[in-house]
Amino acid sequence: MHHERPHTGRRRNEATRQAILDATLRLLGESEGAPVTADAIARAAGVGKQTVYRWWPSKGAVLLDALTERSALQVPDPDSGSVRTDLHSLIEATFRGAQSDSTAPALRTLVREAAHDPHLAELLQKFTAQRRAAIHAVLARGQQRGELPADADLDLMVDEFYGVFWYRFILGHAPLDDAVAARLTDSILARG
Predict the structure, then answer these.
(1) Which domains does the chain show, CATH number per domain?
(2) Could you report the per-residue pLDDT of 134-152, keeping only the tens digit for each?
(3) How many other C-beta atoms are found inside a 10 Å radius of the C-beta of residue 118?
(4) Whole-prediction pTM value?
């Protein structure tokens, strides 16, 4: 009686893909700002460079996938019934996530490389749009519940949050800690 072997290709491919994403974040965390090449990522993941390029069009695309899937930057979608509670938890999660050991160097590299890689810049726009949408959804729910005025400029409120985040993250001149998250929440809602 002939038994077919179970097909493991898809599972093996997914394991390889995850190994590449893990290797990417690990190398960036260890690189201290030095460029991480596609060759180095492939070596660390135990695959050929062509395997990396089979799934991603560029090194930046690998990096973005790693940040989106495997890092502390995954976006929560809180809905506690309080706009203040939900906004504060999102701001706090973003601040903490962006500063984790594996995420911060990856995010800094992504921003730096997007400046001279149009495809990566486009991917970064999609990445940030998803995060903007999460904040906007929290504010919109608050507006629907009457916690924010009907004419509140939700897009500007989102910009206030991300303006502070990116400015402090990129320049590093002031902290992104829990105390700042609480003050920024109050500041955004006060002008809502």
Answers:
(1) 9-58 (1.10.10.60), 70-190 (1.10.357.10)
(2) 999 999 999 999 999 999 9
(3) 8
(4) 0.81
